[in-house]
Design goal:
By secondary structure, the chain is α+β, with helices and mostly antiparallel strands. The chain is built from seven helices and four strands, in the order E-H-H-E-H-H-E-H-H-E-H. About 40% of the residues lie in helices and about 20% in strands. Strands 2-3-1-4 form a four-stranded antiparallel β-sheet, with helices on both faces.
Length: about 140
Amino acid sequence: MEKTLLLIKPDAMRAGNAGEIIHILEEADFALAAAKIFEMDNQLADRFYAEHLGKDFYPRLRQFMQSGRIMGLILQREDAISHLREIIGNTDSSQAAEGTIRNLFGDHEFITSNAVHASDCAASAQREISLIFPEINI
């Protein structure tokens, strides 16, 4: 079983879409291994998005990720990372395939407000899970 991380971002949480997103994931045979609701502070944002520090868009991204509650989920199934990336769709929700999570719940005008974040590879999943769920050994 492969594990991966999904964050339901503040825009989707404010809109009350967490339940529908989790339902889609369960329908896609993901098992929910852990969940928590949290708020991202400066330190966590800078560690989580370390590869974006210094880029033009980073201050807006950090402000957005600190704008409300986030739900973190550890999901597991065979080929969890690649399957989840397929289900969530393109980072730009206006370009995401019909029926994907970002197409259904993202704000098509603002790329940052795309409803969810998902780990893009096994190394990222391990690093991101350890940041969001430091109490869990993976």
